[in-house]
Amino acid sequence: MFCLPCAGGGASAYARWQERLDAFGARVRVLPVQLPGREDRAGEPRFTDLDALVADLDERLDTAFARPHLLYGHSMGAFVAHALTLARQRRGAPLPRALVLSSHRAPHVRPDRILDPDADDEALATSLAELGGIPWELARRPRFRAAYMPLVRDDLRLCSGWVEPADVEPLHVPLHLFTGVDDHLVPLPKMAAWRAHGARGSELRTMPGGHFFVRAHEDELLRAVAALTTRYGSAVPAV
After folding, report:
1. Band of the pLDDT at 237, cuts 50, 70, 90?
2. Does residue 153 belong to any structural domain of this protein?
3. Domain-embedded: residue 17
């Protein structure tokens, strides 16, 4: 299962997933995807264009994607996962057995300005802290904001686009959707709108918590993900 991070995040967000999924009986290998410009790839230029990032990921992961797999993305990661799967569908490449997506508006839903990439560092950090993305203690530190907000801002711009409803091209994979019941950034209707993108059906599950329920209620999410790996187990062998 390949895992894509949220805006401002990196592969370390999934550091505990293999251990926890093993504990829940999942038979799957967790493969966090590290994007450029963060953590151990901090020295590489960041992408701010979605199509360019998708082309890079498609090429870099093409061999790995030839094996049966699931693709998970949280927030920005969900948006990127959809775009990557759509690009591969259009060129006839192997697709994931299912997409597991959490906490991002469907691609035909226009973004709001709760997290505004054009806001100054202090305002953007405040909005992110209100959503639970960073601790308030860090949000109040000017040096932290100066170092971290440019990454967040670039990522927000990366996933700021949308398609017209008439141009929706459904994916030929099942969609498994998760959203926090108290998520003010991506309320339930914006997550339910993903159903228009699932030609093989979709399932939507609400979780306790807000936009970052994946942290506060990680085990509950991973129990559900473990069940999905069992459902698709004949196609997603352990490595």
Report:
1. very low
2. no
3. yes
> How much is the pLDDT for 238?
38
CATH number at residue 55: 3.40.50.1820
Which amino acid is residue 123, in one-letter code? A
Instruction: Please state the domain count of the chain.
Output: 1
In a domain, 158, yes or no: no
Closest-CA residue to 36 (of 80, 74, 1): 80
Q: What is the pTM of this model?
A: 0.95
Structure tokens belonging to residue 1: 């299962």
